[in-house]
Amino acid sequence: MKDANCGYCQGGALLEKFGIPICDLDVSQLILFKEQSKPGRCIVAYKDHVSEIVDISEEERNRFFADVTRAANAIHKAFAPDKLNYGAYGDTGCHLHMHLVPKYKDQDEWGGTFQMNPDKRYLSGEEYEEMIMKIRECL
Questions:
Q1: Strand partners of residue 70
Q2: Strand, coil or helix: 139
Q3: pLDDT in tens, 118-133
Q4: How many CB atoms lie under 10 A from the CB of residue 35?
Q5: Collapsed DSSP state (helix, strand, coil) of residue 97
Q6: In Å, what is the CA distance from 132 to each residue of 20, 50, 107, 126?
Q7: What share of residues in the chain are helix, strand, coil (percent, to 5)?
Q8: CA separation (Å) from 45 to 58, 79, 105, 106?
């Protein structure tokens, strides 16, 4: 099931507004969040357009969380954050996804909730590609 207005479902220009696909996982897609004030921030988006974790079977939930865990392990290996925060929102987009937000003690927001889109740090195409390759190598 796909939604014509959803960046996670459609990819392309809708996704490019905020993210860059890294790879497909078992039941989801791993996406690099373009705003990189938290180096290594990614999104794990479920393969189908469902709104809630309760909208999928137990088996699919387990597989989704296995994908989240695989991505989290790769982020830890690639970027060595002091903590990885997990955020599951979707008030407006309504597509099941989870933000994986590395936190670093020597950067802003340590000890607080991360901003959804601080709009502070964007990278060059080459820098994004280097980051994506680093994550892929650690998956």
A1: none
A2: coil
A3: 888 999 999 999 999 9
A4: 17
A5: strand
A6: 9, 26, 22, 10
A7: 35, 20, 45
A8: 17, 21, 27, 29
pLDDT tens digit sequence for 42-77: 999 999 999 999 999 999 999 999 999 999 999 999
Q: Which domains does the chain have, with CATH numbers?
A: 7-109 (3.30.428.10)
Q: What is the pLDDT of residue 43?
A: 98
> What is the model's pLDDT at position 86?
95
pLDDT band for position 3 (cuts 50, 70, 90) = confident
Structure confidence at residue 117 as a pLDDT band (50, 70, 90): confident
The SS3 call for residue 50 is coil
Helix, coil or strand: residue 102: strand
Residue type, 86: Y
Sign of CA dihedral 30, 88, 105, 115: positive
User: CA–CA separation, 81 vs 79, rounded Å?
Assistant: 6
Residue 123, amino acid: L
